[in-house]
Amino acid sequence: MTTKKTVTERLYDDYAQSFTVSDLLFEVRTEHQHLEIYETPALGRVMLLDGVVQTTEKDEFIYHEMMVHVPLFAHPNPKRVLIIGGGDGGIIREVMRHKNIEHVTQVEIDQSVIDMCKQYFPNHSAGAYDDPRANIVIADGKDFVANCTETFDVIISDSTDPIGPGEVLFTSDFYADEKKCLNPGGIMVAQNGVPFFQGDEITNTYTRLSKLYREASFYVAPVPTYTCGFMTLAWATDDEVLRQQSVDTIAERYEAAGFATRYYNPEIHCAAFALPNYIRELMK
Ligand code: SAM
After folding, report:
1. What residues pair up with 231 in beta bridges, in sequence order?
2. What are phi and psi of 224, to 5 degrees?
């Protein structure tokens, strides 16, 4: 009997997920992180950075649709979007589906991630990097917002976890500089971990964003390979109305946008802000 080769994610000391791999497609230690791409029977292609699952072909649609369409349909008239991180291309792909968006800047620290994901995950970016509205900047997101003179209607921070290069993107300084890049009535959303095991990330982010915005909260999505229940996505804005809009209002915008989605829909949009008590308890 052939022994199956498996890869184990080591995000937590005492809990792990493993998956069978059929092939190691690419591996490199970039100047920023360890990048691995595997072919797997269960998840399609999988990318890890520093041993942590970043994206898989099988479940990426859930995360990328929820990170993008919730803020872009909640905002009444978004034109300019800033993406921090997002090197696999899933976020910019979903943003470009909104034809009312006029400009997208994406600030990614690691060119290798963009290059390798274009090659091994072609359906993630699906040509979005070549969209004339796209402006790709290779830089540390922290430095970019600290020196940025442009402003945006929606900022989407699709970073790694707060370890390694992503750590700076969860600091008060970063959030403060980031807010200076947000237009009045703008919305900031960010990848904010799995509260079942990363509860401190909720408490820290809530504390830091609450000092800067009239409203800081979270919404949730169940991304299978971000294991242990809901993934929380941070939400911050000075316009509290934006989170309270009706399903009908969101549905009008969704219908007008004219594209199909596989996870997101107006009912899910509104329901995603209903947080379980164990997450609410972390928001203090
Ligand atoms: N969806 C994944 C998650 O929830 O963990 C994140 C995917 S995406 C691949 C994360 C990206 O953040 C990577 O491409 C990484 O290079 C980028 N990144 C990490 N730290 C960064 C920083 N300080 N500035 C800009 N990009 C950064």
Report:
1. 221
2. -50, -40
167 alpha carbon – ligand 1 mean position (Å): 10
* Domain count across the chain: 2
Q: Would residue 1 count as lying in a domain?
A: no
* Probe target for ligand 1 pocket from 43, 48, 54, with the most ligand atoms within 8 Å of CB: 54
Per-residue pLDDT tens over the stretch 239-250? 999 999 999 999
Residue 121 and residue 47 share a domain: no
| Per annotation, catalytic residue among 158, 161, 173, 200 | 158
The sheet with strand 23-29 has its strands ordered as 23-29, 34-40, 44-49, 52-56
The CATH number of residue 180's host domain is: 3.40.50.150
Give the mean model confidence (pLDDT) for residues 26-46. Answer: 97
Which atom of ligand 1 is the closest one to the Cα of 33? 16
Residues 158 and 51 in one domain: no
Whether pLDDT at 1 is above 80: no
- Residues 122, 250, single domain; the answer is yes
Confidence band for 2, pLDDT divided at 50, 70 and 90 = low
Asked if 232 and 177 sit in the same domain, the reply is: yes
Gap from CA of 149 to ligand 1 centroid (Å): 22
* 208 and 131 part of one domain: yes
Contact 171, 190 (CB under 8 A): no
Note if 158 is an active site residue. Answer: yes
Q: 267 exposed, middle or buried (CB, 10 Å; 0-12, 13-18, 19+)?
A: exposed
Statement to judge: residues 210 and 77 lie in one domain: yes
Per residue in 118-166, pLDDT tens? 999 999 999 999 999 999 999 999 999 999 999 999 999 999 998 889 9
